[in-house]
Amino acid sequence: MPERIAERIAALDWMHLQHTLDEQGFAALPSLLTPDECTEMIATYTDDSLFRSTIDMARYRFGIGQYRYYQAPLPPFLQQLRESFYPELAKAANRWLDQLGQEAIYPTSLPAFLEHCHEEGQTRSTPLLLKYEAGGYNCLHQDLYGDVYFPFQVVFVLSQKEVDYTGGEFLLMEQRPRAQSRGHVVTLEQGAGLIFPTNHRPVAGSRGYYRATLRHGVSTITSGVRYSLGIIFHDAK
Ligand SMILES: O=C(O)CCC(=O)C(=O)O
Ligand SMILES: [Fe+2]
């Protein structure tokens, strides 16, 4: 495995990932982060100087657990992750806009996209570290933080399933117009990630593409502690 995370991301089979995103809306990534990198990211949780705010999920009825938004500038490893995923995902984002008959608006690099967020008053960083203990869960939701949003986000599970925790499956719910909703359960090994839609996705129908709305969450952690790293590309109001 290449040392630098940017190289590991560049070495992913993007042809296949792009196809999978178009076909099913989300795409699982192999274990891209090493166990040591996962441990190091988990260890940041207790360093208050790295975070701009901490949310107790129960307080807002978002679920049971806690999460912390990293302060900008992000830790270098996380910055590299966010920047390296963006260009390929921007291609998919623009293709999806095109399929829905909209103008392709996403710039090719993350700094250019963030500049746009900042111009619109979305200046607060959004990547976050989540921690759930036994009994914890994350309600189905969307991570929209203003009018400007990037249509994909990436999550990495940092803890080891069946060793550090049980339960705690990643959930995606797809709501199609005039139809019942479809659920997906995605099992993620330690260091593995998932690319999924922030808001909606185009689905090919008999009369062109229509929009399906997606929400995501996490099922109940039945034992242990589960940490995850959420990479959201737009900044927040
Ligand atoms: O803990 C998870 O796997 C999901 C976290 C989440 O909601 C996110 O990354 O936006
Ligand atoms: Fe989320």
TrEMBL record:
UniProt superkingdom: Bacteria
Pfam families, per database record: Oxygenase-NA (PF09859)
Listed Gene3D superfamilies: q2cbj1_9rhob like domain
Keywords of this entry: Iron, Metal-binding, Oxidoreductase
MF GO annotations: metal ion binding; oxidoreductase activity
Fe2OG dioxygenase domain span: 123-236
Family membership: Belongs to the iron/ascorbate-dependent oxidoreductase family.
This protein's name: Prolyl 4-hydroxylase
Organism: Brevibacillus reuszeri
Lineage, broadest ranks: Bacteria, Bacillati, Bacillota, Bacilli, Bacillales
